[in-house]
Write a structure and sequence with these properties.
Elements: H1 2-25, H2 40-48, E1 55-57, H3 63-68, H4 73-80, E2 104-106, H5 114-128, E3 135-140, H6 147-159, E4 163-169, E5 172-173, E6 176-177, E7 198-202, H7 206-221, E8 227-232, H8 252-259, H9 263-273, H10 279-302
Parallel strand pairs: 1-2, 1-3, 3-4, 4-8, 7-8
Antiparallel strand pairs: 5-6
Helix pairs in contact: 1-2, 1-9, 1-10, 2-7, 4-10, 5-6
Length: 323
């Protein structure tokens, strides 16, 4: 059952993002979006290792994390399309999602912007309780070169905070390969500088991700302080919807090699070969995910937008003034 559930979560994320990509191309969604197609095993595996009360902070590429943590695809799609039934009434959009009721504290469109916020949340859990809860802060390899990364991990290591920094290393910071931006091959090596354990895992394998996340989370949960976990993965699309020709900066051989490891069909084959699932069970999971996404699209397209005058009604501060 664990394998089927992981597979279902990955398929749900894949179908959701494929539909979202089409909606953006058709002009139904404002702004831009960053899809995580190819990185579904990271979200599915990591969330399977968490408890409902654990908190997550994500990035501009956070739809998959939201869905895997239990978000309603209808409300999520409505939010991204700028509609009133969305989690932030349509004003947050693709890059600024939040629903604390399921532990999704917020995504952040600023590269590295979620590090200080997540670290502060971990400090709050440590000081205020209840005990036993952890924070998982998702990030990409590019953000690991921001000053906020180093400052936050140093604080977390110094104060032994209950937080796991989960790096989805897809090799590219937008168009820049990690070879041109990092002096170390594995970002997990940086953990030693901040007095915390670091580990790398195959980010295309949901079971491996789940196991590595469980180990990291339980260490942080038990008072052992922060962890840095690097998942080696690959986005099979461009950086964002404006990045349509990845061959301008990614070698064809590299792309084809990673596409052959696409986590969705690869995990499907693995479940069948191991006798862990039947064609019928996997087909039911695929059909269920597809129906749910179809319903989400129809719901979001039909939903009304909120009044523009309400855009600042839930803001804590703007330009120094509370509203």
């Amino acid at each position: 059952m664990e394998g089927i559930q992981l597979y279902y979560t990955m398929v749900l994320i894949r179908r959701f993002e494929e539909a979202l990509g089409r909606l953006f191309e058709q002009g139904h969604a404002p702004g831009t979006t960053h899809l995580s197609i190819g990185q579904e095993a990271c979200a599915a595996g990591a969330m399977a290792a968490l408890r409902p009360e654990d908190q997550i902070f994500s990035t501009h590429r956070g739809h998959g994390h939201f869905l895997a943590k239990g978000a309603d695809p209808k409300r999520l799609m409505a939010e991204i399309l700028g509609k009133a039934p969305g989690y932030c009434r349509g004003f947050g959009g693709s890059q600024h999602l939040s629903y604390p009721d399921i532990g999704c504290m917020g995504t952040n469109g600023i590269t590295g912007g979620n590090f200080p916020v997540a670290t502060g949340a971990a400090l709050a859990l440590q000081r205020l309780g209840p005990p036993g809860r952890v924070v998982v802060c998702f990030t990409g390899d590019g953000a690991c070169n921001q000053g906020t990364f180093h400052e936050s991990l140093n604080m977390a290591g110094l104060w032994k905070l209950p937080i796991v920094y989960f790096v989805e290393n897809n090799l590219y910071a937008q168009w820049t390969h990690i070879r041109s931006s990092s002096a170390v091959e594995s970002l997990a090596e940086r953990a030693r500088s901040y007095g915390m354990p670091g580990a790398s895992v195959d980010g295309m394998d949901p079971l491996a991700v789940k196991g590595a996340t469980e180990e990291a989370v339980e260490g942080a949960r038990g008072g052992g302080g922060p962890r840095l976990l690097e998942a080696r993965t690959y986005r099979l699309t461009g950086h964002s919807k404006s990045d349509v020709n990845t061959r301008l900066y990614r070698p064809a051989e590299e792309e084809e090699s990673w596409k052959a490891r696409d986590p969705v069909p690869a995990f499907r084959r693995r479940l069948l070969d191991a006798g862990s699932a039947t064609e019928e069970a996997l087909g039911e999971a695929e059909d269920s995910a597809a129906r749910l996404v179809e319903e989400a699209v129809a719901f979001a397209l039909a939903a009304p937008s909120d009044e523009p005058s309400r855009a600042r009604s839930h803001a804590y501060a703007t330009s120094g003034a509370t509203v």
